[in-house]
């Protein structure tokens, strides 16, 4: 059950990043001018998908707090790097974003780093 908290944190974080990217692609570019930028961002909070991101982010925080009662931060925190791996994978598969050899090699290195930390 202890690792469930870390996994839930990762899943909520990945969900939030993918949904924000998806919704911001459809929202268009950030307008010029400070007031217009504030209005643009405020308007995004009326979007149910963005509200779901707020919920997922809150759940990630709560889950991380629970994980911190079970693990040392120096042990648990590297697992959050797996968020990067999943965001890269799903942004390519779902959102059609680019994937190249440098991103793949970097992702492998991150994963190996997490595995080394897990053994430690």
Describe this structure in words.
This protein has helices spanning 2-27, 34-44, 48-68, 73-76, 81-93, 101-119. By secondary structure, the chain is mainly alpha-helical. The chain has one domain (2-119). Helix 1 (2-27) packs antiparallel against helix 3, helix 1 (2-27) crosses helix 5 and helix 5 (81-93) packs antiparallel against helix 6 (101-119).
How would you concisely characterize the structure shown here?
This protein is mainly alpha-helical and 120 residues long.
Please give the structural blueprint.
Elements: H1 2-27, H2 34-44, H3 48-68, H4 73-76, H5 81-93, H6 101-119
Helix pairs in contact: 1-3, 1-5, 5-6
Which descriptors apply to this entry?
mainly alpha; 120 residues
Total helical elements: 6
**Estimated structural class:** mainly alpha
Taking the alpha carbons of the first and last residues, their distance comes to 20 Å
Major β-sheet annotation: none
Q: Could you estimate the helical fraction of the residues in percent?
A: over 70%
């Amino acid at each position: 059950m202890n690792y469930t908290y870390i996994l839930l944190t990762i899943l909520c974080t990945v969900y939030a990043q993918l949904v924000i990217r998806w919704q911001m692609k459809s929202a268009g570019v950030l307008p010029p001018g400070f007031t217009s930028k504030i209005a643009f961002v405020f308007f995004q909070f009326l979007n149910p998908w963005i509200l779901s991101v707020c919920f997922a982010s809150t759940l990630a925080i709560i889950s991380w707090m629970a994980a911190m009662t079970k693990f040392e931060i120096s042990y648990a925190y590297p697992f959050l790097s797996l968020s990067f791996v999943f965001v890269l994978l799903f942004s390519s598969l779902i959102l059609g974003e680019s994937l190249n050899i440098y991103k793949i090699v970097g992702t492998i290195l991150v994963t190996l780093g997490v595995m080394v930390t897990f053994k430690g």
